[in-house]
């Protein structure tokens, strides 16, 4: 199973913000959309970072509520780890685990085409395991 199969189920909508948007405005977007991270894009549409709930909490813990007026670019993870449509679920699980990240932008041909979370990946992996178990049961039952 691939990243493409995950996006076919969940869709390719990606919520993005600009590097100059405030942490407060971005936190409101995360809350309203019930998501854990956003992609940060520059004016040309290039992915320049990821900002997660953890990044916001870390910022507030270090600088107090005043940091909410500061720009996203001061708190985002700028070293973006991404994946491609044909990466396997196992590959992206390993990448997320090794890097201790929960969200991966999906970039194909230099263009942002989606975003997956660890929840999406785990759900897909569980679906795979259940399908395999059902197939084995059918095989055994039909002998």
Write up what this structure looks like.
By secondary structure, the chain is of the alpha+beta class. The chain has a single domain, classed as Roll (CBS-domain). The protein is built from 5 helices and 5 strands; from the N terminus they run H-E-H-E-E-H-H-E-E-H. It has helices at 3-10, 23-33, 53-63, 89-99, 118-142, and strands at residues 16-17, 37-41, 47-52, 103-108, 111-117. The strands form 2 sheets. It has a 3-stranded mixed β-sheet. Strands 4-5 form a two-stranded antiparallel sheet. The protein is elongated. The two termini are 27 Å apart. The mean pLDDT is 92.
Q: Strands of the largest sheet, in order across it?
A: 1-2-3
Radius of gyration: 18 Å
DSSP helix fraction: 40-55%
**CATH superfamily membership, which one?**
CBS-domain
CATH topology: CBS-domain
Q: Which overall shape is indicated by the principal axes computed on the Cα atoms?
A: elongated
Structural class call reads: alpha+beta
Number of structural domains: 1
Got a strand count? 5
Kindly report the average pLDDT value: 92
CATH architecture: Roll
CATH top level label: Alpha Beta
- How do the SSEs run, as a string of H and E? HEHEEHHEEH
> Runs with pLDDT <50, length 5+?
none
Distance N to C terminus: 27 Å
> Major sheet: size, sense and barrel closure?
3 strands, mixed
């Amino acid at each position: 199973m691939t990243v493409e199969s995950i996006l076919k189920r969940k869709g390719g909508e990606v919520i993005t913000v600009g590097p100059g948007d405030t942490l407060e405005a971005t936190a409101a977007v995360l809350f309203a959309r019930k998501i854990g991270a956003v992609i940060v894009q520059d004016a040309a549409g290039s992915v320049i970072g990821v900002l997660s709930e953890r990044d916001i909490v870390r910022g507030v813990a270090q600088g107090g509520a005043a940091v909410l007026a500061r720009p996203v670019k001061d708190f985002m993870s700028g070293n973006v780890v991404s994946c491609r449509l044909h990466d396997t679920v196992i590959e992206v699980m390993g990448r997320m685990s090794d890097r201790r990240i929960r969200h991966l932008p999906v970039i194909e041909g230099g263009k942002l085409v989606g975003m997956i979370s660890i929840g999406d990946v785990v759900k897909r992996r569980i679906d795979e395991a259940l399908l395999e178990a059902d197939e084995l049961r059918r095989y055994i039952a039909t002998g």
